[in-house]
Specification:
With 357 residues, the protein is mainly alpha-helical. It has one domain. Helices cover 66% and strands 1% of the residues. It has a two-stranded antiparallel sheet with strand order 1-2. It is globular.
Length: 357
């Protein structure tokens, strides 16, 4: 089975044209992808810049401008690829199979399954390491599960149970036809190739996952690759937040203030922060001029969040630069189709977790 991820122009006689009565009209060109539209805009802009540079003799300025624009395109692709595939990793945190498999090997139900499942590739680390690498969780919440989890199940056992949970969840949500489809095989191969360009320096969660053996089944190769790319990006995001001077709770508060991701109530409770701690963080951010009196982002707050996201895209760009524009577009196209299938099958809660799009 092939997922419905073909370009919109397919099936509309885009290649052969179409007729209406005796009126034969010329063929319609294929609909451009997002990247093609961006490249067309780029080329127009570059021609204008070139004309200006010829008049002014500023060839070095032109070269620098071209480099910035090419980098901007790469960073945009990095975000598009992340948005198209990230849910295929994060669905594991909402799948009932995860808690079933992890409690089956000895872990306690609830937060312990999340903390131990995600941290296990780093080994039997302490709560301080998990708090630092996960970044936005209350240290007290983490300490109630880690390191106790390793007394109940070793990291290797937890890793095996988590992969089994991913297998069961993906099979249930996507069905055997999608699991065995040509698109799944293609997506798995593309993502694995992208991972080969990731570096482990300064990325502890990625480094731990990168030491794991690759599974054999294409849908598990896909899931493992998406997990690696997600942790690679996440480690870079933590670096960007730290450079911006945002603590874990401040990062959480400012992100919910953008109106994206988790709703504030779920974000606070699921990360283990008290209302007093949350209110204190809001007050501190307001004193810095990042939030206004109603808790909304100020222009400075919006600018800081945009800076963080841009730096995150920059740090996450190498695997997509290596893959190239066309193959990254293929990842986005197929990834969106597989994600839609998983969401349609109920991979995520419909209410009480995520902000309205």
């Amino acid at each position: 089975m092939t997922l419905q991820s073909t370009p919109p122009s397919a099936g509309i006689k885009a290649e052969t044209g179409w007729t209406h009565g005796n009126d034969t009209r010329p063929p319609k060109p294929p609909r451009r992808s997002n990247t093609e539209c961006f490249v067309k805009w780029q080329m127009r802009a570059l021609r204008s810049i070139w004309r200006c540079s010829q008049r002014e003799g500023q060839s070095q300025w032109l070269a620098g401008t071209c480099a910035v624009m090419v980098q901007g395109m790469a960073f945009s692709l990095a975000r598009s690829a992340h948005n198209a595939t990230n849910s295929l990793h994060s669905l594991i945190y909402f799948a009932p199979e995860t808690e079933q498999r992890l409690t089956g090997v000895g872990l306690r139900a609830g937060r312990m399954c999340y903390f131990a499942g995600r941290a296990a590739p780093m080994g039997a680390v302490g709560s301080g390491v998990v708090t630092a690498t996960f970044h936005n969780f209350s240290p007290g919440l983490v300490a109630r599960s880690i390191p106790m989890a390793w007394e109940l199940a070793s990291p290797d056992v937890v890793i095996g149970a988590r992969l089994a949970a991913a297998d069961a969840a993906l099979t249930r949500l996507l069905g055997p036809d999608v699991i065995a489809s040509a698109d799944m095989i293609t997506l798995a191969a593309l993502l694995r190739d992208a991972v080969s360009a990731c570096s482990a320096e300064g990325r502890p969660l990625y480094a731990g996952h990168a030491d794991l053996e690759w599974p054999d089944a294409p849908h598990l190769v896909m899931w493992h690759a998406v997990s690696l790319l997600r942790e690679h990006r996440g480690d870079g995001h933590t670096c960007a937040l730290t450079c911006a001077g945002l603590s874990g709770i401040e990062a959480l508060v400012t992100h919910t203030a953008t109106g994206k991701g988790f709703i504030p109530e779920f974000a606070r409770a699921s990360r283990g922060w008290s209302q007093d701690e949350w209110d204190s963080a809001v007050s501190g951010l307001a004193a810095r001029g990042l939030l206004d009196g109603q808790g909304a982002l100020t222009p400075a707050g919006h600018a800081l969040r945009a800076q963080v996201e841009d730096q995150t895209d920059q740090l996450a760009a190498p695997p997509w630069q290596y893959l190239g524009e066309q193959r990254t577009e293929d990842v986005v196209r197929i990834g969106k189709a597989v994600t839609r299938a998983a969401i349609t099958a109920g991979a995520f809660p419909r209410e009480g977790v995520f902000a309205a799009p």
